[in-house]
Amino acid sequence: MKSMLFALTLLLPMSAVLAESPAKPIEEMVQYEVVNNPVNVNAAPGEIVVQELFSYNCGHCHHFEPTVQAWLAKKPANVRFERIEVAFNPSWVPLSKAYYALKQLGKAEELNTAIFDAVHKERRPLNTPELIADFVASKGVDREAFLKAYGGFVVDSEMRRGVQLARQYDVHGVPAIVVQGKYRTEGDLAGGNAKMLEVADALAAKIMADSSSKAVK
User: Fold this and answer.
1) What is the pLDDT along the chain (217 residues), one digit of tens a residue?
2) Are 215 and 4 in contact (CB under 8 A)?
3) Contacts 24+ apart (CB under 8 A), 21-27
C-alpha cells in the first residue's frame, strides 16, 4: 500500500501539468520512437530524465529556446532536465565546447539565451575560443577560468560524449528530445518543435503510470 501511495504522490505533479492542456494519447512511431540502444540516465526512483539535444549553431534550437524556458518554469519537481550540446560538424565544436565549459563553471543556463541571441540575432562570429571568451567575459564570466575549462580534458570528453549520445539515440538533427534515455521525439514526429515537450510530458506520465502499476503488483 505504501508503494502504491508513493507512486500516486509522484504522479500528482505530472497530472497537474498535463491537465492544463489536454491532448490526445500519444502513439509510438507517430509522435515518438523507442531508441534502439537505450542509455542508462541514472534516474533516481520516481525520477524522469528529459534531455534536449541542441546546438548553439542551430537556428531551430534558437527558436525553440523560449518554449524550453516556459516548460522549465512549470515542470514537475521529479523531472530532471539535461541539455546535450551536439557538434554535428567541426565548425560547431567551438560553441559546443563553450557550452560544456560554461556548464562546468555553473554559468551555462544563465548565458544560454545571450549566446543564442549573439549567434542568431546579432550575427557575432563566435567561432574561436578567444572570441567566445571575450563574449562571455562581457557577461560577467571570468575569462581565464573559461579558457582553462574550455581547453580541459573534461570539456573535451563532454563534447565527444554529446556526439556519441546523438548517434546512440539515432538523432541526425536538432533540436530533439529524449525521455528516460529510451524514448525520442523530434519536430517531424511531434507535429512541430513547439510540441516536443508536450510529447515529453505525455511520455513522462506514461512512465510514471507504468511504474505505479508495477508497484501495485
Assistant:
1) 434 334 444 444 444 444 444 456 788 778 999 999 999 999 999 999 999 999 999 999 999 999 999 999 999 999 999 999 999 999 999 999 999 999 999 999 999 999 999 999 999 999 999 999 999 999 999 999 999 999 999 999 999 999 999 999 999 999 999 999 999 999 999 999 999 999 999 999 999 998 776 665 5
2) yes
3) 21/198, 23/198, 23/202, 25/202, 26/199, 26/202, 26/203, 26/206
Q: Give the count of domains, the chain.
A: 1
CATH number at residue 12: 3.40.30.10
From residue 188, give the alpha-carbon distance in Å to each of 22, 64, 153, 177, 196. 21, 14, 36, 12, 9
Q: Which three cell numbers stand for residue 110?
A: 544563465
Name the DSSP letter for residue 189.
Answer: H
* pTM confidence score: 0.86
The residue segments making up the domain with residue 107 are 2-216
Cell numbers at 133, concatenated: 571568451
